[in-house]
Structures are given as structure tokens and as C-alpha cells.
Design goal:
Chain lengths: ~120, ~110
């Protein structure tokens, strides 16, 4: 039974389109995250939610909008996709709010390709 | 300057060798230091974490932090082909975790 699951796994779309990625965790964690990993494997935080409340919002274009309907779900909607949005997007969760011990549980990633 | 710097490699060593992976960081406020392992087409998974300076050992893996020089290391003894992966160091800052760019490691049978 997958702990952090995200869909879709692969997404190929045209520039200018709008797309969503969904994430669900069954670990009972209060905090969920979206990370972006570029082609050089650099993993950068985008957003963090604690119990449906936004707590981290990095400098991300406002075309990216996270939504947390409940603490087990965190979705990412992207408007007007650009070539530079091509990356692997990882959802993660942690037991504690700040992830202070560093234990994040990641999903398998959603590979987005914008043509 | 990135807050956590890591040599991207790739690093290729023969099976059985001792592997040394290293990172440097710039923020003195970091307190927790982590190593994540990421297999190809998978999400990162936590390998080890260390609080402040010192060593931590888990089987063939040893994590080392030297806060005076802002240096983080991971040693892998008796390396196996199954250790082939990208290793990401990370450090905790306030409410977020900052990752290095990862070192790709390949163990040759």
C-alpha cells in the first residue's frame, strides 16, 4: 500500500495549457509539500501545507496554485504552462510541521514535459 | 551561492570500495543534516539524519557532520551494485529542508 501516491506519473502537454497533479498520503501526517526537481537533480521546495494551512510559499510564479482539501491531500494546479516548467514534481509528507528531523516521505514523482 | 553545495559527480567505483560523498553548507543555523538516496525514476528516501556535529553509523553507512568547517560526509563501506543511486545531502533551516544537487554514484560489479 503506497504511502505517498501522486498522479499522473507522466504528463506531456503543450505550452499554454493548464494541468493538475494530485497527491494523497495515508501516513496520517499533518504536513505535505510540493518539490520541483530539475534536469540536474536539484530538488527545490515550492509549497508546504500543515493541516490544510499554507505555511511555506517559495518564490514560485502565481501560475502555480496548490490546494489542500484535507490534510491527506495536496494538489498542484499549473496555469499557462511554459517550457521551463518541464521537471519532475514530487509530493512529500512529514510527521512534524517543520520537518525538523528531516524525515520526508516522497511520492514517486510526476514527470511533466511541456512541448 | 547555494546554501548546500554538492559535487554532482558522476562517481564510479568498483564493488567493495569505500565511498566518500561530501557536501558543504553556508548557513550556521542548520541543525539537522540528512542524506537521502534516490534511485532512478523514484522519489528520494531518507537514509540517515544527524543532529548537530558528530558521527552516526547504520550498518555500512556512516554520516559525519563537522559544524566548524560546515562539512557533511557520507561514507559507504563494502559498496554494492545496489548502492548505485543519486545521493542528496540536505540540511534543515527553520521550517524547510534545503537539498544539495545530488551526487550520482555507480558501483561497478
Amino acid at each position: 500500500d503506497t504511502a505517498v501516491s501522486q498522479t499522473p506519473k507522466y504528463l506531456v502537454t503543450q505550452m499554454g495549457n493548464d494541468k493538475s497533479i494530485k497527491c494523497e498520503q495515508n501516513l496520517g501526517h499533518d504536513t505535505m509539500y510540493w518539490y520541483k526537481q530539475d534536469s540536474k537533480k536539484f530538488l527545490k521546495i515550492m509549497f508546504s501545507y500543515n493541516n490544510k494551512e499554507l505555511i511555506i510559499n517559495e518564490t514560485v510564479p502565481n501560475r502555480f496554485s496548490p490546494k489542500s482539501p484535507d490534510k491527506a491531500h495536496l494538489n498542484l494546479h499549473i496555469n499557462s504552462l511554459e517550457l521551463g516548467d518541464s521537471a519532475v514534481y514530487f509530493c512529500a509528507s512529514s510527521q512534524d510541521r517543520e520537518g525538523s528531523t528531516g524525515e520526508l516521505f516522497f511520492g514517486e514523482g510526476s514527470r511533466l514535459t511541456v512541448l | 551561492q547555494k546554501e548546500v553545495e554538492q559535487d554532482p559527480g558522476p562517481l564510479s567505483v568498483p564493488e567493495g570500495a569505500i565511498v566518500s560523498l561530501n557536501c558543504t553548507y553556508s548557513n550556521s543555523a542548520f541543525q539537522y543534516f540528512m542524506w537521502y538516496r534516490q534511485y532512478s525514476r523514484k522519489g528520494p528516501e531518507l537514509l540517515m539524519y544527524t543532529y548537530s556535529s558528530g558521527n552516526k553509523e547504520d550498518g555500512r553507512f556512516t554520516a559525519q557532520v563537522d559544524k566548524s568547517s560546515k562539512y557533511i560526509s557520507l561514507f559507504i563501506r563494502d559498496s554494492q551494485p545496489s548502492d548505485s543511486a543519486t545521493y542528496l545531502c540536505a540540511a534543515n533551516s527553520a521550517s524547510k529542508i534545503i537539498f544539495g544537487s545530488g551526487t550520482r554514484l555507480s558501483i561497478r560489479p
